[in-house]
Amino acid sequence: MDALDFFPEAASTQATSTDFILFVLIGFTGIVVLSVLSLLVIFSIRFRRHSAVRRDDPPEWMKRDLEIGWSSAGLFLALFLAWWTSATELSALIAPKNALEIHVVAKQWMWKVQHQNGAREINVLHVPVDEPVRLIMTSQDVIHSFFVPEFRMKQDVLPGRDTRTWFQATKTGTFHLFCTQLCGTEHARMTGEVVVMSGPDFAHWLTSQPVSDDLTREGEALFRSLGCSGCHDAASRVQAPALAGFFGSEVRLANGTSVTGSDELLRDIVLHPREHSVAGYPSVMPSYAGIVGDEELLRISRYIHSLSPSPEGKQP
Amino acid sequence: MTGLEATATTSARGDRFRSIWRRNLVVWLALDLLVFATLGLAYLPLGYFNIAIALTIAGVKIVLVAIWFMELRLAKPFTQLASTIGFVWLLVMFSLTFSDFMTR
Amino acid sequence: MSGATILVRPLTPVPESGNYLTAGRTIWSWLTSTDHKRIAILYAISITVFFFIGAAAIAVIRFELLTPTGQYISDDTYNKLFTLHGVVMVWFFLIPSIPNTFGNFLLPLMIGAPDVAFPRLNLFSWYLNIAGGLFTLYAVIAGGVDTGWTFYTPFSTMFSNSHVLAAAAGVFVAGFSSIATGVNFIATIHMLRTEGMSWMRLPLFVWSLYATSLVLILATPVLAVTLLLIVAERWLGLPIFDPAHGGDPLLFQHLFWFYSHPAVYIMILPAMGVVTEVITCFARRRVFGYDFMVYALVAIAGIGFFVWGHHMFVSGQSPYASLVFSFLSFVVAVPSAIKVFNWTATLYRGSISFEAPMLYALGFIGLFTIGGSTGLFLASIPVDIQVHDTYFVIAHFHYIMVGGSVSAFFAALHYWWPKITGKLYDEAWARFAAILMFFGFNFTFFPQFVLGYLGNPRRYHVYPPQFQVFHVMSSTGASVLAAAYLLPPIYLIWSMRWGRAAGDNPWGATGLEWRTSSPPPLHNFLNPPKVEQQPYAYHPEGRGPVPGSRTPYRTQDQPS
Amino acid sequence: MSEAAGALREPWHSLSRQREAAAFGIWLFLASELLFFGGMLLCYAVCRYSHPQGFLEAARQTNIVFGTVNTLTLLTSSFCMAIASEAGKSGLRRLAIGGLAGTLMLGFVFLVIKGLEYRDDISQHLVPGAHFALPQLGAQLFFSLYWMMTGVHALHLTVGMIIIARLVLVGIRRELPLTSPEIQVTALYWHLVDIIWIILYPLLYLGGRA
What we know:
The structure holds four protein chains of four kinds. Helix content of chain A is about 35%, strand content about 20%. By secondary structure, chain A is α+β, with helices and mostly antiparallel strands. In chain A, the strands form three sheets. Chain A has a five-stranded mixed sheet with strand order 3-2-1-5-8, with helices on one face. Chain A has a five-stranded mixed sheet with strand order 4-10-9-6-7, covered by helices on one side. In chain A, helix 4 (about 215-225) packs across helix 7 (about 295-305). The radius of gyration of chain A is 27 Å and the shape is elongated. Chain B has two domains: about 5-70; about 75-105. Chain B is about 75% helix and about 0% strand. The N and C termini of chain B lie far apart (about 55 Å). The model of chain B is unreliable at about 1-5 (pLDDT under 50). By secondary structure, chain C is mainly alpha-helical. Helix content of chain C is about 65%, strand content about 0%. In chain C, helix 2 (about 35-65) runs antiparallel to helix 15, helix 6 runs antiparallel to helix 7 (about 205-235) and helix 13 packs antiparallel against helix 14 (about 425-455). Chain C is globular, with a radius of gyration of 23 Å. Residues about 1-10 of chain C have low confidence and may be disordered. At the A-C interface, helix 1, helix 2, strand 7 and strand 9 of A face helix 3, helix 5, helix 8, helix 10 and helix 11 of C.
């Protein structure tokens, strides 16, 4: 048996800042709780039924001042805490641009992980230390939740939608991965581990994986086999939007709205092209709902990313 | 507050009879008019204004029904308050839920 | 129990025709009674049955959790057991617990009314509650439900193979029982206050029932319709939340928590009312800051509707919406804090005695303060991300619902038992049970705070071995708690037969309910009482209580 | 006055107080009912916000003739109900019973038309599922909500009709004192059912017509 743990290891940048907030909250609430509890005890003893103490009324103004005093003190404390924790949260909202992107697909009851070079793992996630990692997650069935306590990180994983989160591990080692959203029979067994390795170790591990195919290349193959290339290829004569630079660009839709190119939009277009037909083009694209699954979409997305004129981010 | 119930003479009954008919008939005609108005306006291509107009007219109809048919104008103040609280809470539900959907 | 003399005579000497208990002795006379006091007893019986059903489920769960390997029961059985525990405890014990038993019994008595505004509706609401309970029990007997009490889609509508429909139908029906009760209480408080009982003379328990009823009628229908939509999607195949058809599971969560967060206030507001009554009585002092206590109750009920999104910080909800909800969740803590401070201040310069109800009430303040403060951790987004859906949350809401509501339920049970039955229970046993319950509770749930921050997810019966020690502590505490819960039924039932007669006002309290006989006659008061006083006139204004005295300065119907 | 005594119930001492309480109670219940429908309205709003095209496309498929006629029918029934309620309070027995009977009949007409409309909808494959007629994303959501909202509304209407039928029956037999608050309470409920339909009409029938 290990020594008794009363506090989880802090193994990410987020963990440190969350713990700090926790300690501040414990400090503030501890003062309040302890003073209430000690006053309860002190009053109970001092003003017990047969004790000989003063019992006349405190003056009315004192009652009023006290009441207003602790009401406003409570309010200001609440407002301060709300502002401060929210500010901390806001500053950590956006993942750094250079974050390593890893795709996670959850299903009853396992975690499937795919790295950018195509390396796959199940119920294990290998990541390098001291490097921001962005997770792009989706579920094939019910809602799951990706939770690594040592990173103070948790994000629900939804069907039909991508959710994302990010972390930067600060310690090497093996950490717990839990599903925290009730997802059926083996919910409690939908666990795994996150292995944090040093940068060189991770690079070595990654290259030594039996890589079936590069995600981008797989995506390109799908792009052709599904027939997307027939219209959307740069060389095609059919009038269809070119996809280079799709991500991050403004896309004007036929219904008058304007949206930003993203994985969500790509999914919407592929599965429900009629509702998302692009302004200025005939609405002729067939729906791929039921044909293209989440994992295929990921690959196509990577391929379209690779068409971008100035490939940014980490491309292995 | 008194439990007195009106015992009316025949002519007074006739007056009551007529006033009940007259008052409610006017409200009913106004409501019908609003139905035809909203129906007609729905066929004009006004974009987002279509739904806005339709819901505004619906709101007017609701107010008419509540004040005249449901006799809110005669109700006690706390009954009038009770009649609005459902709408206020609906507003809370809508605005806070949309604070999520509109900022995703 | 000191046999203090009651100087004031009850308004209504017990008529020879007897009291509400003896007004009819057949079971049929109980099942068809529209007397609010009898309906309260019906509720008391049914919620006690449900309480022990829910408790049996958790007993198996705590036993299973002694080992980390999940060896005693199957995965499915475990999921069904905690669902059973949640559904039964939330909807068939906690929600109706204080309002429908003590609220029903005392509300008309406290405002000097002969009954509630709609007595037949009151009885009907009990039958609805029972019908809902039977549906739910059917779901259990037929094989159970494994969705958790939260019924999250798409699991509940498309993937679960258990009896979701029956359980949802049960909760749906019980919901209308809640609405009927809420309507009844609000109408009663508005329309049936006796002469002189102005709004600012209402006992705070009545105010708490008013606030609770507001939440009941405004939140419960949303739960009902949400469950109806679940049934539509699962049974009729009408897609509403299904992402494959463009629906959004988060929409379900918004609707669900629009009810289920305020539902927490349905459970805790009446508890606050009870504790106020008890504290002021046994401290022999007027409630500190009566008007602030009223505003705080109403504020909690109101603001409680604006904070539901804090259940959804990691759900994929927009981060900006999360910020709004986080802010509002911090704000709702303020009125609760005001209440805690006022209870504490009520003790100041009191003349405090420690009968069983007071022990429960003091325990309530302590546990509620801890539970409430840990709510701030859940309102803060970064910390919530860590502890969401872990044992921290379990510990937090049990501190509120069990440490808070159930403690207050027992406080109420002991405080008003003499009024309800006319008998006194054994004080020594009652004090022992109260103390045992307090310690058992803390042993059970305090370790779970640590367990939660360490990262043990809830709804896990298989867990990493390093968490075992906390689970063993918790299970040990739970057995102490179970023993404490088994004591009151024994000595209370014993008292019904062998207990001493209580007299009309054994605690020397000021409320109108103590001004009629114990147990009260069929229509509560032979003559409607006239209210002349603020509630809680335990001592003259300016001068404090007389040390050692059990006699109130003025009851509510005595002129100054 | 003997009639008033017949209408008085426990725990009330005066009929006007009882009437006030009944009206107040039913208004509270109506607030509750509004939130009940509000849950579905919220679903409608959110889904329409996410799929504006699909919703307009789907709304175009509902039967506007049936919808409009039903709106007028229900408004007229409310008119009859308002007359019945006021007449009851004024002691105009025949007018009160006539109003109630008119309401009942128009409620029945509403249900018949609704039934015809449902039959049309079914034959046009507007029931969500494998054979659903419209390909647009969101159209199935619209029709799920269409069936649920109109279905629950029709259920409320039916409950109202049962209560009214009872009032007519005991009214004709002179078992019900005209002064009984029951008539006003039923009227308020019936008007709420009407108000719900006033909200549903533009949402379900008027979209996508332009």
